[in-house]
Amino acid sequence: EVQLVETGGALIQPGGSLRLSCVASGVTVSLNYMAWVRQAPGRGLEWVALISNDGSTYYRDSVKGRFSISRDTSENMVYLQMHRLRAEDTALYHCVRDLGRLGGWLGHFDHWGQGTPVTVSS
Amino acid sequence: QSVLTQPPSVSGTPGEWVTISCSGSSSSIRGNYVYWYRHIPGTAPKLLLYRNGQRPSGVPDRFSGSKSGTSASLAISGLESDDEGDYYCATWDDNLSGVIFGGGTKVTVL
Fold it and tell me: Would an 8 Å CB–CB cutoff place A57 in contact with chain B?
């Protein structure tokens, strides 16, 4: 059974930094495409970042240069390092496994964690 | 603002057939697979359809999907009260080099 458990969410001031962690079981992160998807209060789902099985990374425009997705293969974990946080980054952040592949197959999020909340406010 | 356009809401009575549209572009839906998710607030979103219209194990055949050109649609036949929730379409966008979601459609069973 695949389980994804996120931690690290917190109340943080604008301009601050935060690192989210996702521990995976039942799936090997180094062999899969892993991503972060967020949902702001009262808003829809929003893809944030993706790391492929070969370590390539992709980001939505609004977080490029501020967020960084990475993984630890020995711990089987995925991280989202967030810098220069803004109020509009406030959301519940989900760790997901993307069963798709580059070439038009991405977006196949078959397993989701429950999410960890990030609130950016002074 | 989403680059996939969905109606904000659809409603129907039990047993009715309803559809949710998802309009994209040549850089998104036309050349890539479309996925559908259902989200009940307070729970993790769930994959409903993959690769335009394939159903994961456990999803009833009342749910079906199709794609044509730059648009896709989700159909629910025999609407049930348990089908209420928010439904999202998603796909890869070649120009953005990222996954995009529709704005979501709230399904209400009257």
Answer: no
Which residues of A27-85 form beta strands (DSSP E)? 33-39, 45-51, 57-59, 67-72, 77-82
In the predicted structure, residue B54 carries a pLDDT above the cut 70: yes
> Chain B residue with minimal CA distance to A44?
B103
Give the 3-state secondary structure of residue A29: helix
A27 contact B CB<8A: no
**Can you give the pLDDT at residue B41?**
86
Do the Cβ atoms of B49 and B73 come closer than 8 Å? no
pLDDT given for residue B2 in this prediction:
61
**What does B85-106 look like in DSSP terms, one character per residue?**
EEEEEEEEETTTTEEEEB--EE
A113 contacts B104? CB cut-off 8 A: no
